[in-house]
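Study both lines:
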Amino acid sequence: MIKNIIRKLLGKSSLSTPVGETTLEAVSLRPAAAPAAALPLPVEPTPVAVAAAEVAAAAVAGPVRGTRVEVPASVHRIDASLLDERAVKVVTTLQDAGFEAYIVGGAVRDLLLGHRPKDFDVATNATPEQVKGLFRRAFIIGRRFRIVHVVHGRGREHEVIEVSTFRAYLDPAAAEQVEGNEKTSRAALADKSHVVDASGRVLRDNVWGPQDEDAARRDFTVNALYYDPRRRIVVDYHDGIADARARVLRMIGDPVTRYREDPVRIIRVVRFAAKLGFEIEPGTREPIRACAELLSAVPASRMFDEMIKLLQTGHSLASLEELRKQGLHSGIFPILDAVLDDVHRDDGREQFIQRALADTDRRVGEGKPVAPSFMLACMLWHDVVRRADELRARGELPVPALQLAIDAVFDARIGDISGRGKLAADMREIWMMQPRLERRTPSAALALVAQPRFRAGFDFLRLRADTGEADADLAQWWERFSTADDALREELFVEARQQDQARRAAVAAGELPAEAAAGAAGGPAKKRRRRRKPAGARADGAPALAGADAGGD
């Protein structure tokens, strides 16, 4: 009863407002405020009405639920050929079972912009257990937000459709509060549905509700859109279609409150602005710097994931520039501090990283996979080189210096995150391969080309050569060698010996610095002298060289 009175007090209607056959420009999708005369206020408030009014007043700070507007195909103009048939099948299966179901969020936004979405999410009023029961391969995941992954296909061709249940809007003041975050307070979070931390950040939210409240909980108006592929309508509560056409990012509700609920929204607004080329609406933009300190409470693993998303949008350079623009380029991501700090503008790494990120953007644009390990290896390379140089200056041998430098930089910039082991192994292999690429002997070269990560190591070398950090002739030699037949490889080995002899002669004559005899971090000529030490080696030195390669790795 209280809820019904509140709805009446707020002038809320459950009726849909379909848009007629007209152009979008002629329709205002942001509802006007209801006139005071339309509000059915009682002449003499009863105690129940007074209590309801107090509850309603307490909810003013929460998101505005908006009015349901059904926008037909003649207005939204979504191209049905851009839809994913598996996502459509999930929606229709849920609808045939008697549930509401829609394609939702970023997929609808991208469809409105004429782009083929990379991922399709579905929202429904079915609970996770009900969704799981309708599909043969469906899995309930997550504690903070319980959702269902519906899996289609197998192996590399598989696709996951993420299905979420409509969530209720709940007053943050009414939520249970715990100390710490979702990692440090797992015991306190057990068996709870709606929990926040001391700053108001939502740690758990698994209370189901109607669609209008689900829309109010979403972050930006352009992400609070629901598309029914069967009826070909878009359901819009917050004028998201108009904002998408105007290319504006607008927060639903009070931005400060929404940033407190989930500080990662600060990073999301930067990512979407860069990815979509949208302007951030002034009210959404103004609190960003003041709220940035809230990010310190977000677990490191989640922040790391958000950083990777930021750099893999296909607009990584624009994303970094947007971070600078919003004052978030320092102190947010330890890895980006190694890139964006002004002190690094003149130390050679800026050109190197810009080339790496431009190549990443190109690959994303071409639909090619991008390995986070390669991208991060590029971003932290100069930290590794600087640290290795310091260790060598203190007397550490080249290869151990490089190994110790890698460990130190990884601990300082990445820390203890989920998946660190695999990521660290891939990055280490790329970095440790750089001095090995200087040793162009038959045993060393053939062993390197046979390694699974050779291509990543070679691409890294080529990037170094493009920026003048490594010998361009060396990169060209490896490119030819990697695709050559046996006869051409013999010729290339002769060419390599001649180039190495010429470089050593130039170093001896003082025409080149000693480091040029090898050219890679940690790979000076003294390593060549160490290879000749093992006794009993053949005249051609092949066994000794092979052993040095194995130890160097």
